[in-house]
């Protein structure tokens, strides 16, 4: 299995440079096209005294938005490096909706982590959680400061659900290239999650795999998986993403929410 097109969400936040470099590193490994995507929605709800003033404010806002898109494109071109197979998509549009639209031809979408201490990505930022719920593609959540991904040692955070099964399948291009894959199950029902079948499935694809039952995590499931991954010297976690819509907002499961906001390792997630 191969990855032929990778999309990376580009904004003007502090972590955007790291994210583009990470996506370029992955694209280089798979000899894939790297497509930078950015959108900026116009801010139009501004009270004005006259139609002429409204038109002037709109023109100023439109000019500012186009300048920010140009900055984002320049950042992408600079950080993607001198490599063949790059493309750019930018528009005056709502960022999440535009990225979801462009992802129809992507094998993987790279987006930034947005934790409480990660800073504001600005008006072009895309929330990783909402993207996961809507995009229908695997999403790699990139924490700030990560520019490279060896993916030689990986952890699959397994739970016998549709989302986790989808994530394992979506991650196969990475899993088959890894030197070692650890399938870890956390929680009191670990033995009932079918981890042996998952190991057999991966072995059938030529993956070197070991299984681990983390019966009684001393901390939350996400922190336990991260701690286990660091102990095994892994730099990529694969897991399902769980969430549902409530009052026009996405509500996430505890481990999903914690990973989206606090993962210190790259995390490939599917819904």
Automatic annotation (TrEMBL):
Pfam families per UniProt: Usp
Q: Which residues form the UspA domain?
A: 4-142, 198-269
Looking up Gene3D superfamilies in the UniProt record yields: 3.40.50.12370
Q: What family is this?
A: Belongs to the universal stress protein A family.
Full protein name: Universal stress protein
Source organism per entry reads: Methylobacterium mesophilicum SR1.6/6
């Amino acid at each position: 299995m191969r990855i032929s097109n990778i999309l990376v969400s580009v904004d003007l936040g502090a972590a955007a440079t790291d994210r583009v470099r990470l996506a370029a590193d992955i694209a280089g490994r798979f000899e894939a096209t790297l497509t930078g995507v950015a959108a900026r929605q116009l801010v139009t709800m501004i009270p004005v005294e006259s139609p002429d003033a409204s038109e002037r404010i709109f023109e100023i806002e439109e000019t500012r938005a186009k300048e920010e898109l140009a900055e984002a494109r320049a950042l992408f071109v600079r950080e993607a490096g001198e490599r063949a197979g790059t493309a750019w998509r930018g528009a005056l549009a709502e960022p999440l909706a535009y990225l979801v639209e462009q992802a129809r031809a992507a094998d993987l979408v790279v987006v930034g982590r947005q934790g409480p201490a990660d800073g504001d990505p600005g008006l072009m930022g895309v929330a990783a959680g909402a993207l996961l719920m809507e995009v229908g593609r695997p999403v790699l959540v990139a924490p700030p400061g990560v520019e490279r991904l060896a993916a030689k040692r990986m952890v699959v955070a397994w739970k016998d659900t549709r989302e986790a099964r989808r994530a394992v399948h979506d991650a196969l291009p990475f899993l088959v290239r890894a030197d070692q894959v650890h399938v870890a199950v956390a929680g009191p029902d670990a033995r009932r999650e079918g981890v042996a079948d998952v190991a057999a499935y991966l072995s059938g694809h030529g993956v070197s795999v070991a299984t681990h039952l983390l019966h009684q995590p001393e901390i939350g499931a996400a922190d336990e998986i991260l701690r286990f991954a660091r102990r095994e010297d892994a730099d990529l976690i694969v897991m399902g993403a769980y969430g549902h819509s409530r009052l026009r907002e996405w509500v996430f499961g505890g481990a999903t929410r914690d990973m989206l906001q606090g993962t210190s390792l790259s995390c490939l997630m599917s819904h």
